[in-house]
Write a structure and sequence with these properties.
alpha/beta, three-stranded antiparallel beta sheet, binds zinc ion, globular, 3 domains, binds 3-methyl-2-oxobutanoic acid, TIM Barrel, eight-stranded parallel barrel
């Protein structure tokens, strides 16, 4: 990286990313993602919004306590008031490198309609928030929410005041994804040129993707002088999401001729991190997604394949290995041993504990009995199930039987267990096996779910492939996702419904 300007990567997958509908993660899942972010070598992990709920608080506290000494800064979000800031500090204080992130909206529309505050009151509240946070730790970030739509003169005044109060980073959010690259460049240039104490802080950008320009806007901001980019794995986040970490990092790394800067990111961890976040949130990565999509390096047209065989540079600007795709899809089978599986898991980017490896190996053997060849997609699915299925399973599947006939109502007998107690229901209802499974699970667990989306996709090629079921459901006005994998699609469906149900039961989350 040498003489290139180093851009800090502030990852907000666990905070803004988790705010996407249905993307809430439990503690175990957040810890797995935080570990993946450390492996990626991000500079800052925004672990959550501690005041938002006891679950958020606990997650930030746990990440700060158990991973806060690993060289990465752990950050917690707070509105600009004493209660939020005190709670954030309470969660962060065990970390070796804590950062408090205080925010307050500054745009005219937010001032008038949301906050009902004058510009003078905004500056006063922002400064008070930074000073309060500063009484706890040195590392303070301030965000003027909706900065991209804030009058530039007022934004300069706010930034000057919070830097004077001690903000070591000032983040410029395009909260509603309204900016364009030239707009973002102009905002950052104005701050660089007009705020007298701007050299005492790092300017950051936080772009939403409503117009599909978050990555381009972040790069434009960095060209104008920003030193930090806020982003998320797979670009998840509010509405259309945030700047995608993998895209913004690889744009800088691939186009050094244009961007004279780089990051500390270990790019070969991008695909494993993407897979993990996709499994944890249930949000599939589109096949043609840049960098981490399944087709990102697939060459279909004959003329392209011919060119690739002659010289890969004809059609390839990055190597798949550089972003973490395995060089070959190695096939394992029932004679493959634990060492081969462990080695493959490592190459796919998973670091399993001895206990996890044992359990994954057992599932691998069971699958190998049914299926001759085990591909990377199968192994990833087993590992993700192991890592994610190990979360608080309130209800688990014992057995089921379904009777189906053309144009007739399905019958289902379902047995579930909870706390070592089994319960069975038999019903003849529903428009098909999926509906019947929802009804039966609902009767046994008492948790009502409306199904908004049901998806099934194979994890590998072939008729004997595993099916991955993901569902998006509504429960009392909140969205919840569920996911499960099996060669038996009905089993995967029941387990995905149970996964969503268990998340609801385990959750203590209350909206702020
Ligand atoms: O989009 C936004 O404005 C935010 C702030 C809290 C930084 O997420
Ligand atoms: Zn945001």
């Amino acid at each position: 990286m040498s003489n290139k300007r180093s851009i800090r990567i502030f990852d907000t997958t666990l905070r803004d990313g988790e705010q996407s509908p249905g993307c809430s993660m439990n503690l175990q899942e957040k810890l797995e993602v935080a570990q993946a972010l450390i492996d990626l070598k991000v500079d800052v992990i925004e672990a959550g919004f501690p005041i938002a709920s006891p679950g958020d608080f606990e997650a930030v506290r746990e990440i700060a306590t158990s991973l806060g000494n690993r060289g990465v800064e752990i950050c917690g979000l707070a509105r600009s008031n004493d209660k939020d800031i005190d709670r954030a500090w309470e969660a962060l204080k065990q970390s070796a490198n804590p950062r408090i992130h205080v925010f307050l909206a500054t745009s005219a529309i937010h001032r008038e309609f949301k906050l009902k505050m004058t510009p003078e009151e905004i500056i006063k509240r922002a400064v008070a928030g930074v000073e309060r946070a500063k009484s706890y730790c040195d590392n303070i970030e301030f965000s003027p929410e909706d900065a991209a739509r804030t009058e530039i003169d007022f934004l300069c005044q706010v930034v000057e005041a919070v830097v004077k109060a001690g903000a070591t980073t000032v983040n410029i959010p395009d909260t509603v994804g309204y900016a364009t690259p030239s707009h973002m460049r102009d905002v950052i240039s104005a701050l660089m040129n007009r705020v007298p104490n701007i050299d005492q802080t790092v300017i950051s950008v936080h772009c939403h993707n409503d117009l599909g320009m978050a990555v381009a806007n972040s790069l434009a901001a960095v060209q104008a002088g920003a030193g930090q980019i806020e982003c998320t794995v797979n670009g998840i986040g509010e509405r259309a999401g945030n700047t995608s970490l993998e895209e913004v990092v690889m744009a800088m790394r691939t186009r050094h001729d244009v961007y004279d800067f780089d990051t500390n990111i270990e790019s070969n961890r991008l695909v494993p991190a993407s897979r993990l976040v996709s499994a944890v949130t249930g949000l599939h990565v589109q096949r043609n997604k840049a960098i981490v999509g399944r087709n990102a390096f697939a060459h279909e047209a004959g003329i392209h394949q011919d060119g690739m065989l002659k010289n890969r540079d004809t059609y390839e600007i990055m190597r798949p290995q550089d972003v973490g795709f395995a060089a070959t899809d190695l096939v394992l089978g029932k004679h493959s041993g634990r060492a081969a599986l462990a080695d493959r898991a490592k190459q796919l980017g998973f670091q399993l504990t001895g206990e996890q490896l044992q359990s994954v190996f057992e599932k691998f053997k069971q699958l190998a009995d049914k299926k001759k060849e085990i591909f990377d997609g199968d192994i990833v699915a087993i590992i993700q199930d192991e890592i994610l299925g190990a979360t608080e399973s309130e209800w688990s599947l014992v057995t089921y039987q379904v009777e189906l006939a053309y144009k007739s109502t399905p019958r289902i007998s379902l047995t579930l267990a909870r706390d070592d107690q089994e319960k069975t229901v038999e019903i003849s209802d529903g428009s098909g096996p999926v509906d019947a499974a929802f009804l039966a699970v609902q009767q046994l667990t008492g948790v009502e779910l409306d199904c908004n989306e049901f998806q099934i996709q194979s994890t590998t090629l072939g008729r004997d492939a595993n099916g991955e079921v993901t569902i998006e459901t509504d429960h009392e006005g909140q969205t919840w996702r569920g996911r499960a994998v099996s060669m038996d699609c009905v089993e995967a469906t029941i387990k995905a419904i149970l996964n969503a149900t268990n998340r609801i039961l385990a959750s203590t989350r209350q909206p702020v």
